[in-house]
Amino acid sequence: MALTNETGTILRNEQVGPNLYVMEVESPDIAGRVAPGQFVHTRLPGMEGHILRRPFSVYTADAVTGRMEILYQVVGFGSDHMTTLVPGQQVENIGPVGHGWTLPEDARRVLIVGGGVGAAPVYLLAKQAVEAEREVDVVLGARTKDALVCLPRYEALGARQVRCATDDGTFGHVGFCTGVVEELLAAGEYDYAAVCGPEPLMKIVAQQTADASLPCQVSLERRMACGVGACLSCVVDTVDGKKRACVDGPVFWREEVVW
Predict the structure, then answer these.
(1) Which GO BP terms, alphabetically (predicted)?
(2) Is 77 annotated in some ligand binding site?
(3) Is 143 annotated as a binding residue?
(4) Which of 21, 140, 191, 217 is the most exposed place for a label (fewest CB within 10 A)?
(5) Span 2-14, pLDDT tens digits
(6) What is the DSSP letter of 250?
(7) 72 is in an annotated binding site
(8) 150 has binding-site annotation
(9) What is the pLDDT of residues 179-198, one digit of tens each?
């Protein structure tokens, strides 16, 4: 899929949880072509002195309205500056970038796992699976109830069930969402799993699904400079050697990754 360098207009940029924000951007070309699991490489206004763009997974996209959303967490200078941007300002995006999720045509029962902001990159996949009339179970994990900012969207999808876990026990299962995954794998047979979140979480779920002989894909996060495969700053160790998270991923099959 060809990349586009598109200037988009910010429509909304609001806080939705603790250090969590959603930015809605009018970007018709990218929003109309992005596949679940792909991302955009973004240049922010007011940061012209910083050469490197920033990668953001696409949370939602609507080809009809030409709008897409990005869920981001404030972790440093760049994301803190991002919170100051207001509707009407413009961002420059390269996208859609990378290989996204591969939902097998014969997968009737699907397990979706999103930890923290990792709930955003799997949302479009869950939507795709529900619309294809698959049975979809979703597991979301966060530190606290207030950080489960994607939950209302997932509940509105019409998935078979949406289970949650919080580290502090303020909502759902007490502890990590891997506990819920273990329960679901023991109780039912799935045909495909997709997981995105902190790498320790993905490593555990990768092992859990391997033990259950369940095909599983993971979406890996890496620091990126160019975002188009030229700089080799985002390499992932795989069984076939080093691959680039930006263009060879960010989604990989579990067995490809050297954990």
Answers:
(1) 'de novo' UMP biosynthetic process
(2) no
(3) no
(4) 191
(5) 899 999 999 999 9
(6) B
(7) yes
(8) no
(9) 999 999 999 899 999 999 99
Distance between CA atoms of residues 3 and 65, nearest Å: 20
Dihedral Cα 26, 129, 251, 203, nearest 10 deg: 130
Phi-psi region of 56 (alpha: psi -120 to 50; beta: other; left: phi over 0): beta
231 is in an annotated binding site: yes
Residue 57 is labelled as binding a ligand:
yes
- CA-CA distance, 155 to 151, in Å (whole number)? 6
Farthest CA pair distance, the chain: 53
Decide: 117 and 39 in contact? Cβ < 8 Å: no
Q: How many whole angstroms separate alpha carbon 107 and alpha carbon 4?
A: 32
Count of alpha carbons within 13 angstroms of residue 145, beta-carbon side: 6
Is residue 1 very low, low, confident or very high in pLDDT (cuts 50, 70, 90)?
A: low
20 is in an annotated binding site: no
Q: Is the pTM of this model over 0.85?
A: yes
State the virtual CA torsion across 101, 102, 108, 113 in degrees, nearest 10. -20
